[in-house]
Amino acid sequence: MGQTKLQSLLESFCNTLSAFVISIMVWEFVISPIYGIEKKFIENISIVSIFTTISIIRSYCWRRLFNKRIK
User: Fold this and answer.
1) What is the pLDDT of residues 41-60, one digit of tens each?
2) Distances (CA, A) of 38 to 33, 43, 48, 50, 52
3) 3 within 8 A of 63, measured Cβ to Cβ
4) What band does 70 get if pLDDT is binned at 50, 70 and 90?
């Protein structure tokens, strides 16, 4: 029994949202200080948001593909 499209999208969104929060924290408190990269917080949010959006789409597509192949 597979997931509905809405359930797949919700799972992908929750998974990626948690990764978004972790990415922001790692960028702000680990990567930026180590490499001396100075960006405004809003710029960091913008950059990570682009990758997060792509990740949600990617995750959703993979989930749908695997659900389709299981049936």
Assistant:
1) 898 888 888 888 888 888 88
2) 8, 10, 15, 19, 21
3) yes
4) low
| CA pair distance 7, 28, nearest whole angstrom | 32
- Residue 56 and residue 43: Cα distance in Å, rounded? 20
Residues ≥6 apart with Cβ < 8 Å to 44: 24, 27, 28, 32
Residue tagged 């950059």 (tokens): 47
The C-alpha atoms of residue 10 and residue 8 are separated, in whole angstroms, by 5
Q: What is the per-residue pLDDT for 30?
A: 92
